[in-house]
Write a structure and sequence with these properties.
Order of helices and strands: HEEEEHEH
Helix content: 40-55%
Shape: globular
Largest sheet: 3 strands, antiparallel
Radius of gyration: 17 Å
Strand content: 15-25%
Strand order of the largest sheet: 1-2-4
Number of strands: 5
Number of helices: 3
Length: 90
């Protein structure tokens, strides 16, 4: 799985009204950083964050990721079934 950075979804800016804000990258379920089993990392600049997102993100199969992916899949399937059911009753 190749990671594509989604700034609105995955990046938090701490101290955005200060001279030097911190950028925090929160990886979605199924991804982690290659050098350690972590899913969140902070950066001093957006350039560093973007570079790391390209180089350091790999797939993850830890229990938290597997559980999170299973939960998301269930929610998507359940939502699709509800929409089909609602369309059939119209």
């Amino acid at each position: 799985m190749k990671y594509k950075l989604n700034i609105k979804r995955d990046v938090d800016i701490a101290g955005q009204w200060t001279e030097q804000p911190d950028y925090i990258l929160n990886l979605p379920y199924g991804l982690r950083f290659s050098d350690d089993l972590v899913h969140v990392r902070g950066y001093d600049s957006m350039a560093d964050l973007r570079d790391s997102a390209k180089r350091d993100v790999i797939t993850c199969n830890c229990k938290d990721c597997l559980d999170g992916l299973a939960d998301e899949t269930y929610k998507l399937q359940h939502s699709a079934a509800e929409k089909r059911g609602a369309a059939e009753t119209i």
